[in-house]
């Protein structure tokens, strides 16, 4: 059987799923397989075996291991991997950062084909779109071999979906779950399941496999927020605030996922497969906000004049990902030929919603108290709706699409070189990507005497202070529905942010593998040629211009990997690799807006980021589910991209503001990864059920931030945390299994201020998330589970310059879940 199809038996299809613990002593003989397949130690052991045999420096989370952690999606599961952290949206893991490298600089593949990004301006894939139920395994490759796409600086996240050849014969599982969000005090349902079986075609026996999985969840949750946007005035030695806002979010998030896969293995020398995946992520969000903009900046405890506002945002955003991969492999004597064709598409659609409905009024004797979590200080007149009149209503419609098509061919020949096993491998890949973004905006204004009193909804449940009534979305829609839509069309906002970008990549590689004694050496060279084309619209002093820009560049990327087997259980690894990442689509956007002395624009001429990477480490495997490892890594980055203001230089000499993106000089990132996992099965009962895992990543970075006038300062790489760590302790007996997991990441630079204004750099504070899961077998095939997420009620806090000064504070509350899973092997 080809190596591609030698798989571990573990398979997980539900986050509640398939048991955490060992099979009960009272179970029938068939349950003995459950001990091997779905125990905590078994799932970790399978992942470690894959990690040990990999030619790359790689971390693996096996699918049944995902099910043992209280994680809702693929992003949250990956936060447990050494060197990885997640960016959260409304408390849920969303984007994944690898070794301190921002999510846009890493890549994600599903079954070997690139996953495009639903968001119009990003390359980063929001992995909360992908329900973990559809995942067979997750791996993070941190040192790329030449036969892999070179489009990541931190690592490539590989998602593998399920296959019928993961099991012997019939397999099925069904799960149901109810979760309680403490912030909104609402219960949310979830259902998932999977099926796989093998069939005999022709003269073969069990040579055709069908596997299917589905997941549906509708989660109702929310958050409470207070933010300043970092609008502090630090002149004169006092910290004074220009504006402050309180927000309440009510969200309904619906996830639907489905996967259907086919495998055909007619003999021991060939295999063919079709992988399909569909995922839909629908967010319905209502955000009520109120705030103050002070006539003059004022400090905490001071009172003065301000414009007050009440604002509503009500929209429905739907993101979809589709992926189809057709491939096969054939062994002909010493040759192995493999080919794959992939098509993937990501879309983002908002059919039209309220981007903002703002009522304003003037107030005196108002202010705020506190600087890290400021509270509005207002009188009763602020809660009188007759004191607010409608300023404007913004209606927005979004339609974005990202498509990627590719064809790949690989040929490998095994032979002997001076009595040593060797392989030469070569191949190529053609990729065609097309990303479009289309936004339409209408701004309804010139309202006269329209009072908030006629457009109120019920009381807003805001945990950070008194709020009062919200704004009715239905009433606002009824108001603008009777107006002439064409008269309020905002042509500027609707045209200059639209674009159509094409990115064609042609790649080829040559790679050689040689086994000499205890050494495995891999050397190779990869070529990637990129052709980029962008179309958009610019606005210059009221006149629209069509923009067409193109760029072409080539990269030759050598690589060298070495693995030395010190002992059967201990290996040294080293790698020298070179990678390249294209700028984000937002940075490359061709549109611009020039209005008098103010300008903002993208930069289609940006150079791609390049990185030379060094990795060195040691792995020691200790029996079942046991490993201790340490890795050093170093990355030397060129063409670092940053936002800048070019006003006062070159063609922008007479401008007050000229905001764009530029390539900088170099940046450096270096660090240490430590990992440990151990099952203490040699201890006497009950301690023989104990399982402990921990990992720690320590890193440092240095980048040069340069202004238009030539001024420079050294900064950390944005989104890079100096410390990322995980700790897990689990215990399993015949019926009961428990697992407590903690994830920590230190604070990091989120957003840069001006070159000479460190005080307005924004930093995200450190976070510690603690989650718990327990499972109990009611019968050999039926398990009851309980989960508690964010049990310490960790908040999200961003500050400006110093931790005392708020930019954003948001809290979510814990979530509790109860589930039931039926599984048959």
From TrEMBL:
Residues 52-156 form the TonB-dependent receptor plug domain. CDD domains: ligand_gated_channel (cd01347). It is a multi-pass membrane protein. Pfam families: Plug, TonB_dep_Rec_b-barrel. It comes from the Bacteria. PROSITE patterns: TONB_DEPENDENT_REC_3. Keywords: Cell outer membrane, Membrane, Receptor, Signal, TonB box, Transmembrane, Transmembrane beta strand, Transport. InterPro entries: Beta-barrel_TonB (IPR000531), Plug_dom (IPR012910), TonB-dep_rcpt-like (IPR039426), TonB_rcpt_bac (IPR010104). Residues 1-27 form the signal peptide. The keyword Transmembrane applies. Residues 362-791 form the TonB-dependent receptor-like beta-barrel domain. It is found in: Cell outer membrane. The keyword Membrane applies. NCBIfam families: TonB-Xanth-Caul. Belongs to the TonB-dependent receptor family. This is TonB-dependent receptor. It comes from Pseudomonas fakonensis.
